[in-house]
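Re: that chain you flagged

S.,

Sorry for the slow reply, it's been a week of failed gels. I finally had a moment to sit down with the sequence you sent. For the record, here it is as I used it:
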Amino acid sequence: MIEMLEGRFFKTFVTVLQERSFSRAADKLGYVQSTVTAHIRLLEQACGKKLFNRLARGVEPTEAGEEMAKFAHQFVHLGASLEEAMNRLDDPRGTVRLQALESFCVTRLPRFFGMFFTRYPHIKLHLETGFFREVLDGVANHRADLGIVSQHPHRDDLDFYPLQEERLLVVASPDIVRVYEQEGWEGLREARVIGFGSRCVYQTCADELLSAQGLKGNDVLEFASLEMIKQTVRSGLGIALLPEIGVKAEVEAGGLGILPTEPVLLTHGLVARSGRELTSASGRLRDSLTGYFGGSGEG
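Prediction finished late last night. Pasting the structure tokens below so you have them in one place:
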């Protein structure tokens, strides 16, 4: 029976049931009466029962028609619910789990989130900070829907969407900059390297950069916060490799100076589990992030 049924037949049946008339049902549905008659005839053929008795003025359901009405109403309601659910995809809702490097969150995301949540007020965000490997593992193991990392992971189980090229600069206090100007890198052999620690790609880049300048084995101070790193560098306790956007204000104000090295360039991007269909809320965040950073949202 099921292969002979169509949703519009049930809608026509329910309308005839409500109007108690084929002609009025046709007017309400925008059909010619012969179409209504054909829909009811096809339903009757499918179930093998007569569904309406024709009266002098209209129709009334038979016993089979009364039984059919129970299921027809459910079918029409299900169709309306399905249509509503599909329409909600244009107004997504739900919670998105995002993991990202703390420095990217602080420097790049506040303005974006202001725009995003104004447009999609029914989406909630669970944001956790983490380092490169932690973010990758979180997404790969379904603990996060999306992640933001500082470089392409080159993993088959993860899709990568480039977001923003990041310039990293070596910064120091004005006093340490003066030491460099007088003695070069040789004068910084005892300088501490301040950063997020060995789990962070920034730290790996800093080690490689300083090694190229002949500096190896410098003491390292690790902090979890970009602000704490900047304040420690400003106090003269060491040098750090940090995103240009994250130190711009301090450099312009004279609280930090830049050591003259080639800037390190990294491409931050969004990662999602390959082959996994995202929820409407997660998909909208992904599309909004790639559109914002790939367009004119950030330079």
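What I noticed first: The CA atoms of residues 81 and 87 lie 10 Å apart.

Talk soon,
D.
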